[in-house]
């Protein structure tokens, strides 16, 4: 996973630390993380878990079944777990501070996660337009450019772009720095649009109230089964671009069934940001979340 492949390690962390020190935002002491994330087991159709204790035609290679959930040449499973725990413990300290700050403002924060091109930014722009005068702020994560933040600002909403460079996800420290610049209003919606990536953002708590996994109909019905950790971590899944379904030869019911195979408790909304289909249900979900924060 990301925490041991390098992008979650010292290279990105140290680069961001240097940036914060330059801007006078050096961090505070760090806390401990209880345990590394565990791999997600996907029930087969009919309810039985798929087990790799048998042979597959073509001699397929199945890695990541040890305790660490991944494999690195020359490194033991125990060492991988130690590295992951260390990185996530540092991140969780920042996430806890973010969560406290967001809660103190009675705000509701969502972490929008998906593959690149799923329609996150278009969905977010349409959401902002439909929410009207409700206070809100947006943190945009990408490796490069301010394109998405510029699109958000064009709606009149406050937005800050976080460019991660070679990093493939936002982390708690990046969000803490962004919050310090945003000035989150009381009783606001905070939308965090993560870097387009269905793997690494699943492991990193940003201090959000809920992860929202966005999946477009053009990605294939088996996407939740290929990338289960993200859908297991999410509280809501949005099946986006449903207006394209008639042209893509896809089965929307199968999309939803596969999401629920990974996470039976997840709620799934079918949405088109272009036509407005399903948008009211999405807004209702957001408003219910904000109401729970006491705003």
UniProtKB/TrEMBL annotation:
Family listed: Belongs to the SIMIBI class G3E GTPase family. HypB/HupM subfamily.
UniProt cross-references to Gene3D superfamilies, sorted A to Z: P-loop containing nucleotide triphosphate hydrolases (3.40.50.300)
Keyword entries, A-Z: GTP-binding, Hydrolase, Metal-binding, Nickel, Nucleotide-binding, Zinc
GO molecular function, one term: GTP binding
SUPFAM superfamilies according to UniProt: P-loop containing nucleoside triphosphate hydrolases
Gene Ontology process terms (BP): protein maturation
Name of the protein described by the UniProt record: Hydrogenase maturation factor HypB
Domain CobW/HypB/UreG nucleotide-binding: 110-269
Domain of life the protein comes from: Bacteria
């Amino acid at each position: 996973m990301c925490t041991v492949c390098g992008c979650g390690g010292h290279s990105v962390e140290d680069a961001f630390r240097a940036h914060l020190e330059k801007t006078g935002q050096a961090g505070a002491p760090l806390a401990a993380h209880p345990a590394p994330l565990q791999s997600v087991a996907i029930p087969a159709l009919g309810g039985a878990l798929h087990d790799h204790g048998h042979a597959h035609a073509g001699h397929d290679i199945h890695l990541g079944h040890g305790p660490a959930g991944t494999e690195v040449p020359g490194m033991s499973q125990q060492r991988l777990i130690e590295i992951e725990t260390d990185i996530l413990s540092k991140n969780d300290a920042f996430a806890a501070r973010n969560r406290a700050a967001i809660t103190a403002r009675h705000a509701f924060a969502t972490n929008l996660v998906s593959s690149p091109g799923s329609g996150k930014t278009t969905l977010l722009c349409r959401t902002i337009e439909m929410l009207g005068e409700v206070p809100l702020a947006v943190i945009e994560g990408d490796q490069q450019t301010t394109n998405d933040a510029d699109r958000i600002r064009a709606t009149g909403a406050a937005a800050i772009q976080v460019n991660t460079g070679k990093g493939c996800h936002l982390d708690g420290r990046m969000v803490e720095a962004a919050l310090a610049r945003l000035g989150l209003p009381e009783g606001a919606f905070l939308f965090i649009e993560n870097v387009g990536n269905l793997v690494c953002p699943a492991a990193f708590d940003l201090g959000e109230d809920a992860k929202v996994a966005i999946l477009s109909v053009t990605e294939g019905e088996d996407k939740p089964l290929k990338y289960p950790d993200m859908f297991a971590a999410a509280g809501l899944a949005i099946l986006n671009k449903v207006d394209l379904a008639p042209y893509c030869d896809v089965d929307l019911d199968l999309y939803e069934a596969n999401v629920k195979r990974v996470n039976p408790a997840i709620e799934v909304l079918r949405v088109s940001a272009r036509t407005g289909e399903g948008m009211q249900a999405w807004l209702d979900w957001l408003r219910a979340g904000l109401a729970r924060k006491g705003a």
